[in-house]
Structure formats: structure tokens, C-alpha cells
Automatic annotation (TrEMBL):
It comes from Billgrantia antri. Its EC number is 4.1.1.36, 6.3.2.5. The chain holds residues 193 to 427 of 428 of the full protein. Residues 15-235 are annotated as: Phosphopantothenate--cysteine ligase. This is Coenzyme A biosynthesis bifunctional protein CoaBC. Binds 1 FMN per subunit.
Amino acid sequence: QAALAGEMPARGLHVVITAGPTREPLDPVRYLSNHSSGKMGFALAAAAAELGARVSLISGPVNLPTPAGVERTDVETARQMHEASRRLATECDLFIGCAAVADYRAATAAEHKIKKREGEEGLTLKLVKNPDIIADIARLRDSAGGRPLVVGFAAETRELEAYARDKLERKRLDMIVANDVSTAGLGFGADDNAALLLWRDGEGEGGASLPPQPKSELARAVIERALGCLTSRPV
Ligand code: CTP
Ligand code: CA
């Protein structure tokens, strides 16, 4: 019995995870997006479910099967992901923003297909900023009195630790998982990843460097570290 409880440390917890890219329409046949495969977010969902949590996965367009025991909500745009996150995060214990949210969308998506114009060599698109989903959830947490714990990701090509620390502070996160995406074979689209974890909890500030490993193993380490923060943070 005790051994079973030890293997299911997330039992009774509700975890909400965003994953994959978002897709921002330009017109009925075109969109703006990025190369996120969703693998890391789906691995996190699988790991949390294996550790006993109730898991809600909010996914952008990806080509992956839903992990066993996971409740999945599919979205396309950042604004749809934002809405689903707000709805689910108000009643969760742990929110993990793993999605590669498009920072900008077209100011207005054209109602009809944009036609190529004779005599014009270029096309200028007007983009506007999308909402910062995780920063918004972290603000919700502040006003709702201490829940959920909020974990973000940072994909960087340089100055990994400095940019990750800045995001941890600026977005008021409890923990950040920083990836150096300039390393070949790791990160975007790959099956393996390495990460620098930075966190704040009741015991102060911590950090850990996780070496290259399958995303499934990295996911488990991230969930276990987040559970540690949940247990030790001040109420
Ligand atoms: N994120 C989010 N909503 C956005 C943009 C990012 O929730 N509109 C989340 C991501 O899911 C991730 C974290 O914020 O957990 C960091 O994403 P990142 O793109 O690295 O941060 P940005 O603040 O967008 O900074 P930049 O792209 O300029 O590095
Ligand atoms: Ca971004």
C-alpha cells in the first residue's frame, strides 16, 4: 500500500498542460505557425497521468495520439488556447505552459483568399500581439490565493540562463524549463531533450541541469520537480 502511494505521488492533483504550436489564420487557406511537434507537452501529460494525476491537455494542431488517461482539448489559435486555459486552470493545482504560442497574429484575417497582385513586388502583413497565456494564468493565481503552481518553458538559441531567469521573473512563474534549441538533435521535433530547470519554492531558489535524454524521462523529472515545489511552497 505504501509503495503504491509512493509510485502515485500526483494522485488527487489536477494538472493542466498546453502543448504544440498555435496556428494563426491569414486567410481561409493560409496561416502563421512554428515547428513545435507537441512531443514534450504530450510526454509531460503522459508522465503526470502515470504518476496518478488527473490531466487536461490543451493541444494546438499536432500529429500525436492522446496519452492514456488524458483528457484532451484541441485548439488552433492562441486566443482559443487562452480561453481553454482560463477555463481549466481556475480549478487546477499545476499549470504547465509547454505550447509554442505564436507571439503575433494577423490584425485581421482576410475573409477571402488573398490574391497575388500584378505590379506589386511585396506584401506587407499587419500583425498584432497575442495574449501571454502563462503570464495571465500566473496573475489569476495571485488573485485567487495561491493556486495553481505555474511552470513555463523557454526555448532559446543564446544566453539560456539569463533569458530563462528573466522569463521566470517577468511572467511570475514558479518554475521554468529552459531548452537550448540551437543544439542539433535536441528540442523542436526531436525525441530527446536536455534542460536547465530554475525554480522558486518555500525553500528559496533552486536549479538543476538535466542532461540529454528521451523526452519521456525528462518529462518525468520535470513533473517530479514540480510536485516538489507544490509540497514545499508556502501556503
Ligand atoms: N507563452 C504563453 N503565451 C504566449 C507566449 C508564450 O503562454 N503568448 C508561454 C510559453 O508557453 C512558455 C513561455 O511562455 O511557457 C515562454 O515562451 P517564449 O516564447 O520563450 O517567451 P516569450 O515571452 O514569447 O519571449 P520570446 O519569444 O520573445 O523569447
Ligand atoms: Ca514567444
